[in-house]
Write a structure and sequence with these properties.
about 40% helix; about 190 residues; alpha/beta
Length: about 190
C-alpha cells in the first residue's frame, strides 16, 4: 500500500494536463477523448455493466475505454488477457468492433488491450503483439503502477524502440507506434 501511495504522489508531481502537451496528436487525444465528459447514450449501459462486474478499473476509466474505440475509429480489437468478458462488453457498446482473443487470428490489430500480468507469464508475448500492430495501433496496458514489477515492465515498454508515443495516466499505459512522430513520453492526469 505504501508503494502505491508513493507511486501516485510521484505521478502527480510529474503529470500535466493538455497545457503541457506539445504534440498535436496527443493534444487532440487528451482534449477530445480523455477529457470529453459529455453525456452519451452508452453511459447507462456502461454503468450497468460496471456495477455487475467487480473490477479494479474505475467507472471513469471504463467510460474512457469505450470512448477510445470510437474516437480512434478502431475496428479490430485484440483482448490479450484471460479475464471476464467485461472489457469486451465495454469496448463493444456503441462501437462497431470485432473482438479477438488470440494474436494468431489476424495479421494486424487496431487496438490491443493487455493485462500487464500476462507479460510476466509469457516472455515472448510482447514481440508477438508488437508484430501485430500497424502505424496507427494502440497497445493499452492496465495497472502500470500497482507494483514495482509493473512499473519496471511499463518503463521497459515505453522505452522500446517501436514505441513512439507513450502516455502514462497512472491507471493505464498507452503505447502508439506512429513512425512519423518523434519518440515522446507523456504523463497525463485524466
Amino acid at each position: 500500500m505504501l508503494f502505491r501511495i508513493k507511486s501516485y504522489l510521484y505521478f502527480l508531481w510529474k503529470s500535466t494536463n493538455q497545457h503541457g502537451v506539445h504534440s498535436p496528436f496527443v493534444f487532440n487525444l487528451v482534449t477530445k477523448c480523455f477529457y470529453d465528459r459529455k453525456k452519451r447514450a452508452s453511459d447507462a449501459s456502461i454503468t450497468s455493466i460496471y456495477k455487475k462486474n467487480p473490477v479494479e478499473i474505475s467507472l471513469k476509466n471504463t467510460k474512457l475505454l469505450n470512448r477510445l474505440i470510437g474516437y480512434l475509429n478502431y475496428e479490430k480489437v485484440l483482448i490479450a488477457e484471460n479475464s471476464s468478458n467485461f472489457i469486451e462488453q465495454i469496448l463493444s457498446i456503441d462501437n462497431s468492433t470485432t473482438i479477438y482473443y488470440s494474436a494468431e487470428d489476424l495479421d494486424q490489430f487496431d487496438f490491443i488491450y493487455l493485462d500487464i500480468n500476462q507479460l510476466k507469464k509469457h516472455s515472448k508475448l510482447l514481440d508477438i503483439l508488437f508484430s501485430k500492430a500497424h502505424n496507427d495501433s494502440l497497445l493499452l496496458l492496465n495497472s502500470i503502477h500497482t507494483s514495482e514489477d509493473h512499473q519496471t515492465i511499463w518503463q521497459q515498454l515505453h522505452n522500446h524502440p517501436k514505441a513512439k508515443v507513450s502516455i502514462d495516466t497512472y491507471d493505464f499505459g498507452f503505447i502508439f507506434f506512429r513512425k512519423e512522430q518523434e519518440k515522446e513520453h507523456f504523463v497525463i492526469r485524466v
